[in-house]
Design goal:
about 300 residues, alpha/beta, seven-stranded mixed sheet, two-stranded antiparallel sheet, 11 helices, about 15% strand, globular
Length: about 300
């Protein structure tokens, strides 16, 4: 696997004749283009700072991200001081802005991110699995810059695929897939379209990265931050079916750089027990760096459901 070329692949944007675009779709598309295009003319650190500012102070208030963050924190961290809540309402969107700027500039991202320190109790298990050609599934969340791990592994000459959830808006999705492809390939869309290729890739003894911290309709009702949260069981089911290691992995911001932490593999048991172990792992990481998780998600839609 080669490193990123430094050029983001052109996004294949659906033609206007396919479906009329909503005003919201056009607005979000324009914001993304501004966030991606304007800061690119700036030096790297200034570029990140500008993207941080645009997302935290302009986009987040307009599209309601601050309210979403407050609602989530009120649900799961009701005792959090108001000063900290206000800080997170600024820093969480700011982290998103930095992430967008980073992954939309693959050449600079590789230059600044590598070499990425890779630490954690699961490093030896990871290396042993790759040498033995044993399938391996990294699970992570929208935390820090989760693509820093993909950068680290590609920089080491290792091949890692990624499963992603296509955005419902085809125009936004075009930007998103371009970002992912610019970091590393292959990438596999969730759903029937990408399932076959993903399984073939995994069974060949490769590593696959999956983000699994979003609400999933009909998911198992497990716990996250002490509240019921519909959670996908698919990564654990894949690990059991194909005898793959299931390893929590995080790309954590450390100042202007990153650290990739590979935790110990989750023991094979039942899908529910395995995915609860991941929820617990992610919660511990989030509590250590509250501003690095995407509190914008509607993670607890099923807060009144019965926990499995």
């Amino acid at each position: 696997m080669t490193k990123g070329t430094g050029a983001v692949p052109d996004a294949t944007v659906p033609s206007a004749s396919q479906e009329p675009r909503s005003l919201r779709s056009r607005f979000i598309d324009l914001l993304i283009r501004v966030m991606v295009g304007v800061p690119k003319i700036l030096p790297w650190r200034m570029r990140l700072a500008v993207s941080d500012f645009l997302m935290a102070w302009i986009i987040a208030p307009i599209v309601g991200y601050r309210r979403r963050i407050r609602d989530n924190l009120a649900l799961v961290c009701p005792d959090l001081p108001e000063k900290e809540v206000a800080r997170l309402c600024r820093r969480v969107p700011g982290n998103v802005g930095r992430f967008v700027a980073e992954v939309m500039s693959p050449k600079d991202f590789f230059k600044r991110a590598t070499p990425v320190p890779v630490t954690g109790a699961g490093v030896d298990a990871f290396n042993e699995a790759l040498e033995a050609k044993r399938p391996l599934i990294f699970i992570s969340g929208h935390f820090g810059n989760f693509d820093a791990a993909r950068v680290a592994f590609v920089d080491q000459g290792r091949k890692i695929g990624a499963l992603y959830r296509p955005n419902e808006d085809p125009y936004v999705d075009a930007h998103y897939t371009a970002m992912l492809s610019g970091i590393a390939e292959p990438i596999f869309p969730r759903g029937r379209r990408g399932l076959g290729a993903m399984i073939k890739f995994l069974r060949a003894g490769n590593a696959l990265a999956i983000l699994v911290d979003q609400h999933v309709k009909d998911g198992a009702i497990l716990r996250f931050f002490g509240k019921p949260a519909a959670t996908t069981l698919s990564p654990a089911e894949l690990a059991l079916k194909y005898d793959a290691l299931l390893i929590p992995c995080y790309g954590i911001r450390r100042g202007q750089g990153y650290e990739v932490v590979i935790e110990s593999p989750i023991p094979h048991s039942t899908p529910e027990v395995m995915m609860q172990a991941f929820n617990d792992s992610l919660e511990a990481r989030v509590r250590a760096d509250m501003d690095q998780w995407l509190w914008i998600h509607r993670r607890w839609k099923s807060a009144d459901d019965k926990v499995a």
